[in-house]
Amino acid sequence: MDAKTTKWLEDHPNEARALSTFTEQMAHELMANSAKGSREDWIRRGARDGINELHWHAAKLSVAVKDLEYGEHADVVEEAVQEFAADVAVCALMVADSSGVLSITEDA
Questions:
Q1: What is the pLDDT of residue 108?
Q2: Is residue 105 domain-resident?
Q3: Would residue 107 count as lying in a domain?
Q4: CA 3 from centroid of its chain's CA atoms
């Protein structure tokens, strides 16, 4: 992480905590869905497949948020919102990665 971003997060602890919590949820979803394939698999499938997955998970997130707002299925909907939001973020990661726009350095 660059120094400017690190400083901003230090100056904004609430946002830093939210980001940390959310990235933990993303990691959980990556692990939970690891049987569906590896990073190499999503790169091979390409960004268009990632966009399709993103749309699918965004639709599920939209329904879960509506249910949360209207108090429907309250016993399971909070967990669903967390899961689907992380799924959408993971799909966005897949799209960016398979498009080649992430600056990822491979381990030596």
A1: 46
A2: no
A3: no
A4: 24
